[in-house]
Structures
1.
Amino acid sequence: MGSVRSLAVVFACALAGAAAPAALADGWLPHPADATWTYEWSDSVYSKAPAKEKVTVKDDSGKAFILAWTTADQGNAAQAPSSTGTVSFQETTAGLNNTDWSSNPPPPDFPVLCPRLSGCNNSLASTFYLLIWGSRGPVLAEPLLAGSTWSGTGGGSNDVTSTSAYAGTEQITVPAFKTPVTAFKVRSEITQAGALGDPYGSGVRTVWWVYGVGPVKITFDHAGGSDASTTTAVLDDTNQTPKTPPSDANYFPLKTGLHATYQWTNTRYLKKPVVESFTCDQVVNASARFTVKSVSGPMRVAGAYGFTLRTDGLTNIWTYAKAASLSKLPPLGPAARPAADRRRFFTPFDLMMFGFNPVLPAYPAVGDSWGSKPTGRDFEIYGVNGFSRVLGIRKVTVPAGTFDALTVQSGLTQPGFTFGSGTRTMWFAAGKGLVKLVWRHADGSVSTVVKLK
């Protein structure tokens, strides 16, 4: 056990001097007390003149905040729409939600976005109404990664629906900045049925988000015939400064239909390879189920794993697996749990997620590190001390191909159980997930996982 204690000391010292993954909660819509934005918006058919709106922070309670806007004293023409209102937001680990809104009624010549005239709480006559239309929960899903899609609802009676997709980055020029800025582009298909003003409430909206600033441009191409209108809002001025955005690489995609086949060997206990296939067969609100089936080898496994991806990282939230094995693997801890309740290594995912969550940060970057906690759900299940660190992007070759892979190394100590202790190195390829894993166990054996296809 001397080697295990030494390993624990090395990794504990490393963790003490390492930085945790950066908190990115308010990066896409910052809200310091002094923040201001000025937008100019217009509709190609219904606006008689463009309207400038100044947006300020009315209230900030940390994760919940309220923005206020007004067209007063903005130098607008007399025929421009006048508007005053507020919009409330809440930051969650799943993204940015809109919780409330209020304003004066829209201009009388704009389409009515309700089934009747009286008591209509719907409007598209402001920049932030364009932003939350049909997608109040969430307005913006996080983490915002390649392949991200989500559904939302909105409107005063939740009668507006949307499907949104992240469409990649784009250099965009707006009046607020002298030079082009990098924006994350989100495209939404929006549907409203039954309003007097149909089909104005339906169409395609595109939002360009700049990290550290918020939305800098919004276009809404309304449904309809050849005379259908387009509403456009552009950031004219702000005291917020664009920041370098996080990477949008998705190193563990939660995508229905994603399939992978892995081979797993251990130099001492699994000299004949175990081959198993995984399929992502269900995804709901960025939570996914992966099913596993045996292909060949001395272990017969059937099971499923649940993962969720939020701003606090990729987390395993449940596991179900049963197996019959001709190879006897050493027992795992923790000693405090009955032997029948302890986890076993049946699949590569068991090796990948063993110890503590998250498996990966939401936006992994070189030098990010995170560690186990001496209390809580993970420690109760695994009883593992240790930490993980992102080493960087490294080239790795496996039977499935050659990849520039995010490399993560973990030091794990499970007291009294050398097979549950050691150094684990994992390689994750963007858009593919886990492609290789090597665990040098403290008992001297080595487990190796490679992606076959």
Note: Residues 1-24 have pLDDT under 50 and may be disordered.
2.
Amino acid sequence: MPDRYKRCGCYRNAQFRETPSATREGAALDHLINLTSRHRDEIMAHLLSLHADDRIERFTGSINDDSVRRYVTSIGFARDLLVGVRQGSGLVGLAHAAVDLERGDLVCEVGISVDRAARRRGVGKRLLLAAMAATRRFNVRRVTVLFRSSNTAMAALARSIGGHVERTGGDSCAVFDLRAGPQLPLQMIRDVQAGEFLLAIHPRERGRVLLVHGAGGDSYQWVPQLLPALWAAGYSVCAPTLPGHGKSSSPGLAHLGVLEACVTRNVEHFAPTLIVGHSLGGYLVQCHLQRQPARRALLLASVPPLVPTTQELGEMVAELQCEDSRAVAKLVLNRAPDIDVAAVARTPLTVLGGTRDRVIPMPWIRYTAGRYGVAPQFVNGGHRLMLGRAASQVMQAVSA
């Protein structure tokens, strides 16, 4: 048992331990898996192994190995949606749905690749359908699939599931108009001082909410559910992407002082009435509140004010699914100071966690709430409480 949390009456219960399941050799060819940054090497190997003609089909042009490597390195796993098909120990099919913002709408460009040995088995269709389903959950309003005009099979597939195919010379584009979710006046702002952030200003705002993501995340993680819910409730929203995060992320840049400064600049720039911090973002919010009280703050599955010891941090990091998340968490928290609880307590706080969270388990949430003298709140969810059914319960806590 971790000593510091045991002394505080707060420690991990065995139910929060999880042994990663190994991939079975000879797994079914049509076994679809969601891919994260820990699959980056597999993605790289799959794309590099494509036949020269297939690589041209995938990227609608000839690119060399170095370009493929740069492409894989630039994938933003916190934002983009990736689905793969594995056979044995490697990927034989991949769908990469790259999410972006275009004139206020979330749009997505999907690229699909399938090994020649796995052709004519419906793998491409399954990948495209899985990618489309994922984009709908992300509230993407338009999906495009680029491919060579000579690829008549892809054109037929796109038409069969409702796509409109447009041809321009040697290249074609299948367009799917999803019109999923509410349309928001989202803007991506790049400011020298405040960095990169998503912004939605409500014309009749009842308040302003600043959303601070955790290790390995970015501003887009709030878009599927919590950001639209806040907008519908009358809030203006600002969601920054912290340094070292986002597309072409460099976790080595995510030093504690740099992250704290980013939060402070966004608070000064946006003047929120509520600050929400998720996971490591919750610790950063506490760091900020030590120096500058706010009208209200919500700590969402947050790192406690008593910073985890090396052993505790190792347990926490082991539960994170993303390599970038692990790298940032270790870099920031390895020698981070404990929080001045009395200073932070000047701000009215809500402390909320998930009943199935293995990263920040329930005892840690109870400990944090106890230190701040508030009652802990729990929703039925894992660690990413801004997604799924838990998001509506989080929204209730925001509106309380």
Note: The mean pLDDT is 86.
3.
Amino acid sequence: MENLSYNNSFILYDSISELPSYGQNLIKAAWEALDSAYAPYSHFLVGSAVLLTNDALFKGSNQENASYPLCMCAERVALYNAGTYDGLTPVRALSVVSKNLRKPNAEIASPCGACRQVILEYENRFDQDIEIFISGLPGQVHYFPSAKHLLPFSFSKENLL
């Protein structure tokens, strides 16, 4: 037996103003998308924005359903919007913001496992890393250079060949 460990790193920005301009715009767009979130059950609002390499921007927000398995996360809504309306252009970056109405000082909420897998699929589809910016109410921004940092032991097309 071998005891192994996996180390990961990310950049923590103290505020949105420290980000490059495209990152600032992406976070702002995700906050705008948060306004259309539908979360009457969890009261946990999530907004997301996707920036393509041609500078097109697509937004998404979480959409809940009384039958919880039918809910859709903001990240997937944004990515699927981009894929539907401009499916030939690679994704450059994705942002995620959240606001817990029951616990206003909540920390960031990173993408769920399903969203991480979908983000990784878009990376594999275009053979290009997707930068990920995650922010919550305190204003700090966590930056990951690729979905691989969020889902290190992933499932991809290579597993199917």
Note: The first strand starts at residue 11 and ends at 13.
4.
Amino acid sequence: MRSFVVAIGRALADHPDEIAVSELQGKRTVVLEMRCHPDDMGRLIGKSGRTINAMRTLLETMAAKQKQKSVLEVVEYARNDGHSES
């Protein structure tokens, strides 16, 4: 599932080299966290969340075949400019 998310993320992103996906496997749940460049957040989420929701639907189908549940989150890389975001 991780490679699927990486492939889709890189295909959509303007900064494909900055797409990174971490996977946490539980007994019945797999959690995927996709990190991306801040400029790619909107592109990966899509208008009204359509793109990310489509990816989640496909992941849920893949996970269901393995009798699991899936969670996908998109996170931008933390900025290292000394400013904290609230």
Note: Residues 50-65 form the longest helix (16 residues).
